């Protein structure tokens, strides 16, 4: 092999140590060639040589720094003139080498000045890390908050990849902030006392494991998106990547054409702001206006071999007008799909719909947990949707008839309204939950678990072994709900239960 | 407030900019002036040039062929003169000790 890849990190707290490492690698016949991302070093094969390396901190041009590309070029030319060959740079750290023993003025000749340069870079990095950490915490919280309660958390493979990656990014950022702060505090004192700068090789075992895991998760992310998009035919996954691709494309164009050009920095700043606005507008408009339409190919979903219900299964005169199928796969639930079957409302007939959510968990315990999550989610959605009616009824002392749908009768209301309003609403919520979500205590379904999730018994969650079904349907067979033996028999036959 | 003492590279860079010079010239000039005793590396040099420009101790007078040329400003000259005075005073103090004049201190008792 003519190249070698190493997982290490180069930063302002360890660069002289890494320079020594490059010298050791060169003596073994590997010359550093490129640094990728946060922690990949790429070496090319050379004849073993004794080389001296020097890594110089020098701010590169960004819209947040005053330094220009021209100034960097001058710096590089002078380094070359005094005997140092440029290899590559990683952010603000520039890597040079020379033959060991050859005459060359050191790139840094004053530690105090060197520390001032790295202090300036470190302070900017700390500020950027604060902002990045805040964003990651927000995103991680959005993804992680349903870890113990959401159905989505168990079924969605993407969330099981993205959420740990975000948590790791937060931990890594926090460690980085602490390390930089500690580095600055220790060395401010050292410089004041005339002592040398203390560097440390920062990658702890935990960080090494985290960076390997992070890379694996990113690979998994790409594989998952491709598998969901192409393998499971969920075009929405591929289309959802479009905003990111548009943003990346604009960023690449900016780096290719704007950043290296000699136009004034103030103009570059305006252009960057423009690029950010344009990519945000394009991405947002794609999300809000057209992604679903782009994914909707109007073709009839193939449900052959799938355990789902269709409106066609229950009525001769009902013909499915539209359907939707979304397949999913995750670590905890390797196989799942959601299917919706619809008949539109016509002038003389009401519309019909039936939804099936099928999941096959890794084991029975996970399937039981999924059932509990369906119940928890339903409890939340029931109280949330009834809340406005409860508020109005108790505040205005006027029973809202919509509450009947939620199992709270006028009689219940009259009994409760004598209580303190807060207490009355709390008890009303309990009644709604208790009456709407009920175990199939009569064992009508004859399965491992069955829970009705609505007062009208048109929503149910079923479990048999490691298979879980969530069913929701309005008048599938006229006037019958999921307690009806005839309907139960028919549904069980369709679902192979 | 008393001016903070300049470090060795700071002092020589300001001193070398009594004449218009670009980066590499400054390095060569310092080496020539100090007969090789003092060497200022490019990392140290460009970091200081940038800071001096911000503090208005020096100004850029031309920018041709990837070479910025600088010259000391009146403020920079003032800082440099202050440092020269400080160093002169240090030498004077040293000469008192070295020249045996410290007896005067003993006689004062």
Give structural notes:
The complex is a heterodimer of chains A (497) and B (109). With 497 residues, chain A is α+β, with helices and mostly antiparallel strands. Chain A is built from 13 helices and 13 strands. Chain A has helices at residues 15-27, 69-81, 111-144, 151-155, 157-192, 205-231, 235-240, 242-258, 265-295, 364-396, 410-416, 421-436, 485-495; strands spanning 3-7, 30-36, 40-45, 51-57, 85-90, 93-99, 322-328, 335-343, 352-360, 438-439, 449-452, 459-464, 467-473. In chain A, helix 3 (111-144) runs antiparallel to helix 5, helix 5 (157-192) packs antiparallel against helix 6 and helix 10 packs across helix 12. Chain A is elongated and about 95 Å long. Chain B is an alpha+beta fold and 109 residues long. Chain B is 59% helix and 14% strand. Chain B has five helices and three strands; from the N terminus they run H-E-H-H-E-E-H-H. In chain B, strands 1-3-2 form a three-stranded antiparallel beta sheet. In chain B, a hairpin with a 2-residue loop joins strand 2 and strand 3 (67-72). Chains A and B meet through helix 2 and helix 3 of A and helix 2 and helix 3 of B.
Task: Give a quick rundown of the structure.
The complex is a heterodimer of chains A (497) and B (109). Chain A is an alpha+beta fold.
Characteristic key phrases:
heterodimer; A: 497 residues; three-stranded antiparallel beta sheet; B: 109 residues; alpha+beta; 5 helices; elongated
Helices and strands, with pairings:
The complex is a heterodimer of chains A (497) and B (109).
Chain A (H helix, E strand, L loop, with lengths): L2 E5 L7 H13 L2 E7 L3 E6 L5 E7 L11 H13 L3 E6 L2 E7 L11 H34 L6 H5 L1 H36 L12 H27 L3 H6 L1 H17 L6 H31 L26 E7 L6 E9 L8 E9 L3 H33 L13 H7 L4 H16 L1 E2 L9 E4 L6 E6 L2 E7 L11 H11 L2
Antiparallel strand pairs in A: 1-3, 2-3, 4-6, 5-6, 7-8, 8-9, 9-13, 10-11, 11-12, 12-13
Helix pairs in contact in A: 3-5, 5-6, 8-9, 10-12
Chain B lengths: L7 H9 L4 E2 H11 L8 H13 L3 E7 L2 E6 L1 H25 L4 H6 L1
